[in-house]
């Protein structure tokens, strides 16, 4: 077996590993930790809401940590009092040109409907590709009135079987507090998806996208704008 064949085998193995290794979305929310992170293989990207920073981790080591910076003021407005005023007014569109564009969009409604269906189907397939690996939620609730807290507790336990049937693997705990008003949520949620499935759905969307019709529509709209 030649060196080229070995290179192809190694590349194919790496490609299978990249497509088969799961992507995990992890949410930790409690009194000490408020983080949302994306894990893939040995790399993790984490948003820390408690310390207002973002991190890039390699295995368990933090290789990069940057705080969230405030938006810089505009150059024309150094005090940051708002967006600068336009010096020149925008050109007015003639009604006839707008009507022509609307007419052109109406005639291309089948292509636009097909593109919208592709987007909706892709979004639904991507959502269904994620599976709940772990879901633990603890809620401490108090409405300031024992009667209202009791009613809320009864409503929660009446809806709990429905949530368990529709979202298996989700564990929700409810701790009522009758002596004070409080609302605290502790959550640890992990979602998992395979990159191969996400790539497959993306390829399906690209293959069914009406490229020729939308390209022609874009060219016609650009011609009207001249």
Spell out the blueprint of helices and strands.
Elements: H1 3-20, E1 23-29, E2 34-40, E3 43-48, E4 53-58, E5 61-67, H2 95-107, H3 109-129, E6 131-143, H4 146-166, E7 170-176, E8 181-193, H5 195-208, H6 211-225
Parallel strand pairs: 6-7
Antiparallel strand pairs: 1-2, 1-8, 2-3, 3-4, 4-5, 6-8
Helix pairs in contact: 2-6, 3-5
Notes on the structure:
- The protein is of the alpha+beta class.
- It has six helices and eight strands, in the order H-E-E-E-E-E-H-H-E-H-E-E-H-H.
- It has helices spanning 3-20, 95-107, 109-129, 146-166, 195-208, 211-225; strands at residues 23-29, 34-40, 43-48, 53-58, 61-67, 131-143, 170-176, 181-193.
- Strands 5-4-3-2-1-8-6-7 form an eight-stranded mixed sheet.
- A hairpin with a 4-residue loop joins strand 1 and strand 2.
- Helix 2 (95-107) runs antiparallel to helix 6 (211-225) and helix 3 runs antiparallel to helix 5.
- It is extended and about 70 Å long.
- The model has no long low-confidence stretch (mean pLDDT 85).
Features:
single chain, 226 residues, alpha+beta, 8-stranded mixed sheet
What is this entry, summarized?
This protein has 226 residues and is of the alpha+beta class. The protein is built from six helices and eight strands.
| Mean pLDDT over the full residue set | 85
Order of helices and strands: HEEEEEHHEHEEHH
- The percent range for helix content is 40-55%
Unreliable stretches (pLDDT < 50, length at least 5) are none
From the alpha carbons, calculate the radius of gyration and give it in angstroms: 26 Å
Shape: extended
Strand order of the largest sheet: 5-4-3-2-1-8-6-7
What about the largest sheet? 8 strands, mixed
């Amino acid at each position: 077996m030649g060196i080229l064949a070995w290179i192809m085998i190694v590349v194919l193995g790496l490609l299978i590993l990249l497509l088969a290794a799961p992507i995990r979305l992890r949410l930790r929310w409690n009194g000490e930790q408020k983080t949302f992170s994306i894990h893939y293989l040995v790399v993790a990207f984490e948003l820390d809401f408690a310390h207002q920073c973002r991190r890039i981790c390699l295995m368990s080591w933090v290789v990069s940590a940057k705080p969230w910076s405030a938006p810089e003021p505009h150059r024309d407005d150094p005090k940051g009092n708002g967006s600068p005023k336009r010096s020149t007014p925008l050109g007015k569109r003639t009604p006839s040109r707008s009507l022509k564009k609307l007419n052109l969009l109406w005639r291309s409604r089948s292509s636009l409907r097909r593109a919208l269906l592709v987007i909706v189907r892709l979004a639904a397939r991507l959502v269904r590709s994620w599976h709940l690996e772990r879901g633990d939620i603890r809620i401490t609730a108090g409405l300031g009135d024992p009667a209202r807290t009791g009613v809320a507790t009864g409503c929660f336990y009446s809806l709990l079987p429905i949530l368990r049937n529709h979202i298996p693997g989700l564990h929700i705990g409810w701790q009522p507090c009758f002596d004070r008003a409080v609302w605290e949520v502790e959550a640890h949620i992990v979602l998992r998806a395979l990159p191969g499935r996400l790539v497959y759905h993306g390829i399906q969307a690209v293959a069914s996208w009406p490229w020729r019709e939308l390209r022609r529509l874009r060219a016609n709209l650009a011609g009207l704008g001249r």
